[in-house]
Amino acid sequence: MVDPPRQYVIVRIDLVRRENQETLMFAPLFKYVNASTALTILENKTLQWSAPALFNDPFEFKSPFQYGFEWDELKEIVLQRWATILTQVEEPNLFPGNPVASVIPDRRLECKGRNPAEVSSLLRPRVESFVRTQREESVFYEDFWDDLKQTYRVLCLSGVHNHILMWSHYTNDHQGVALEFRPIIGSEILAAQPVSYSDEVPVAANLNDFVKYLTGVGPKPIREDAWKKAVLTKSSVWVYENEWRVISKRQIDEEGLRSFRRFEPEELVGIYFGCRISSESRERIIAAISNWKTPVSLFQMRDERIRFELTAEAVQVPPRE
Q1: I need a labelling partner for 57 at 20 to 30 A (CA). Which of 73, 145, 258, 287 fits?
Q2: Is the pLDDT of residue 22 over 60?
Q3: Which residue has the higher pLDDT, 272 or 129?
Q4: What is the pLDDT of residue 25?
Q5: Where does 116-242 have alpha helices with state H?
Q6: Given this model, what pLDDT does residue 237 score?
Q7: Domain presence at residue 91
Q8: Phi, psi (5° rounding) for residue 228?
Q9: What is the mean pLDDT of the chain?
Q10: How many structural domains is the chain composed of?
């Protein structure tokens, strides 16, 4: 079973100055949503956690068991390396503890000094069978990962509140809001981890490392960070999102691909209204938090007149009579 490793939990910290004193506080994260979703969140005090199968990017949650080569390519290279190692005069530098390395000395007694092409021909059936087994095992783990992804739940947040594309893509064209959360002790949001962005899909092992392992001259390629890279790496085209994720397993009472988990009211510290939000939506959202016991700061996003920027302006709401 592949579980989220606890050692990767990261806490965002802000250094806040108040009344000439510096205080460490958990830095905020933001959830961009449309106006109707915002009302649901505020009324139920829940956030939606989604299974990776619902993500809009098909490259998400690539398997940590995926290799960076084609199996036919591996077969031919392993065959050539085996023939060389078994026939060469000098002793190979075998890796201690490699299970393949343990059989090489006896095989070299039979093959040393012979023609590598002849040995390669003799080895072909055995190498093909071995690589076929490795491929079948890989397919099994790929299927296992596809099933396992259904059991993960992910809360997606952002480290920024004023990115134009985020407002355009996730708030119904700036008609929604960005909710600002600052986690408290015990909050699941404290486990938020930053997403990395890359032009290449992370793989469990590259061709060279796997060949070394199969020919006894290298360790088994185990990437201890394979799980982390698989679930926290996205294409560079998404870098503007500045995404942070909280990842956990589906709880016993949760069904389907969506889960709605409660957050503490004091974790919501701010609401940013989109520059195109309607007066009606804005008033309904303000009304939804009017009876909250903890304060929530309100901001109106403004599109700058001569710059492609969004600016947040504080909103003062008159007290209710």
Answers
A1: 73
A2: no
A3: 272
A4: 56
A5: 116-148, 164-170, 207-214, 226-231
A6: 95
A7: no
A8: -60, -45
A9: 87
A10: 1
Asked whether the beta carbons of 179 and 58 are under 8 A apart, the reply is: no
CA-nearest of 4, 68, 61 to 203 is: 68
Domain that residue 49 falls in:
6-61+152-201+226-314
Beta bridge partners of 22: 17
Please give the Cα distance from 268 to 71 (Å, whole number). Answer: 50
Give the pLDDT band (50/70/90) at residue 88: very high
Q: Max Cα separation, the chain?
A: 98
pTM for this one? 0.81
CA 9 – CA 191 distance, rounded (Å) = 5
Q: How far apart are CA 303 and CA 48, in angstroms?
A: 29
Strands (DSSP E) found in 46-98: 46-50, 67-68
- pLDDT beyond 90 at 242: yes
Query: What integer pLDDT is reported at residue 18 of this predicted model?
Result: 43
Phi, psi (deg, nearest 5) at residue 22: -100, 130
Which residues, 6+ apart, have CB-to-CB distance to 261 below 8 Å?
46, 47, 49, 155, 188
Q: What are phi and psi of 222, to 5 degrees?
A: -115, 115
Assign 320 to helix, strand or coil: coil
Question: From CA 151, how far away is CA 257, in angstroms rounded?
Answer: 8
Return the DSSP state at 110. Answer: H
Q: Which is it for strands 310-314 and 297-303: parallel, antiparallel or unpaired?
A: antiparallel
Q: Is residue 76 part of a domain?
A: no
Q: Determine the Cα–Cα distance for residues 250 and 205; give it in Å rounded to an integer.
A: 29
3-state secondary structure of 311: strand
Cα-Cα-Cα-Cα torsion 93, 96, 101, 103, nearest 10 degrees, comes to 120
Mention every residue, 6+ apart, whose C-beta is less than 8 A from residue 313: 299, 300, 301, 302
β-strand 243-249 against 193-194: which pairing, if any? antiparallel
Is 176 within the bounds of a domain?
yes
In a domain, 111, yes or no: no
